[in-house]
Design brief:
By secondary structure, this protein is of the alpha/beta class. The chain has eleven helices and 15 strands. The longest helix is centred in the middle third of the chain and has 17 residues.
Length: 350
């Protein structure tokens, strides 16, 4: 178990266009041709679950038409094709995807543009377009496992775009909007087939991770089969399609108390309220087992929301060792589950 991996994990690649994705300058050349190897790299990164977008100083409609002609447009989420600073475009993409800038890579042929991004958003990995064809060979772009969720990640983010559009147009209260989604939240003990995605979640999730710990496939498999631990996964679907596996919980079970060693949720479901639902389920399990429910929280610079989530769910601090905070839950007043989604609990804790 570690707090961070040695090699950064790139979740999003932001591409320049002129002399990067294609040779030439679109507004000066009658026709541009794709640079060698670009199609293959874009397709491979997509297969690995790495999201991609565009930050290009260009005429929007002309660039979109060129991307469509070359069969690349669908690969790029929230493309920023305008005359703004590249750093501003990268920030806009990060906001739209709700992902941290330290998980981004920016590819551009122009050293000035790379330096501008480096100055304004230094956490972004900058890459010269001359190295673009070999991106898939670099460790930052090579996840240990490629899961079903990885292969469908772009499609799931496309569904998120549609959800966001509908939510923006909805004029009623938030609970009423959530009720229109027809959500089903599934909680189940982790099976062997879940472990690759579970490891991926610990590596990819920072903001909504209570400790920032990462766990390997082998460590998770040990916890899955341990009589002293409970490893749960959570999935979410709605009428627009699946969100995939979006939650993971690791509990150490003692005779008198259960300790939540790790609780994390994908940032994609931050606004769906399922974190509180998962904690309510854990509180019920602990009360039924007749044990205290404890939790650890370790700040990683970006996960304060998870401490707030714990406090709203009835946890209060009982001890502190350095930065590690230990909390205990009040199991006397557990709220009912919300009515805007169906909670499907599968399997029984061993």
């Amino acid at each position: 178990m570690t707090e961070e991996t040695a090699v950064r994990t790139v979740k999003v690649v932001v591409w320049d266009l002129d002399n990067t994705v294609w040779d030439g300058v679109l507004l000066e050349d009658e026709r541009v041709t794709l640079r060698p190897g670009i199609v293959e790299v874009v397709a491979e990164l997509d297969r690995r679950g790495i999201l991609q977008s565009v930050a290009s100083r260009n005429d929007h409609d002309t660039a979109v038409a060129a991307l469509r002609e070359h069969g690349l447009l669908d690969y790029f989420l929230y493309p920023q094709i305008n005359w703004n600073a590249k750093s501003s475009s990268v920030r806009a993409i990060a906001t739209a995807l709700n992902l941290g800038l330290d998980s981004f890579a920016f590819v551009d042929d122009d050293a000035f543009e790379r330096d501008e991004v480096g100055y304004e958003v230094p956490e972004v990995l900058r890459i010269d377009a001359a190295e673009a064809a070999s991106l898939a060979e670099r460790p930052e772009f090579t996840p240990r496992f490629i899961t079903d969720d990885s292969a469908h990640r772009r499609a799931m983010y496309r569904a998120d775009e549609e959800r966001a559009r509908i939510e923006q147009e909805f004029t009623g209260p938030q609970d009423e909007f959530l009720a229109t989604l027809g959500m089903t939240f599934t909680i189940a003990p982790a099976g062997e087939d879940d472990l690759k995605r579970a490891e991926e979640l610990t590596v990819r999730t920072n903001q909504l991770n209570t400790t920032g710990y990462t766990y390997s496939y082998e460590e998770l498999d040990g916890y899955r089969t341990s009589p002293d631990h409970l490893l749960l996964v959570a999935r979410l679907t709605d009428r627009h399609g699946p969100y995939g596996t979006i939650g993971l919980v690791l509990i150490e079970r003692g005779a008198d108390a259960w300790l939540i060693r790790l609780l994390l949720m994908s940032c994609r479901v931050m606004s769906r309220g399922v974190g509180g639902v998962l904690i309510t389920h854990l509180r019920r399990l602990a009360r039924e087992a007749g044990v205290r429910l404890l939790a650890e929280f370790l700040p990683n610079g970006r996960n304060r929301m998870m401490l707030v989530t714990y406090r709203f769910a009835g946890f209060s601090e009982i001890s502190r060792e350095g930065e590690l905070v230990r909390l205990e839950n009040d199991l006397s007043d557990i709220p009912p589950l919300p009515g805007h989604l169906v909670v499907d609990v599968r399997g029984e804790p061993r």
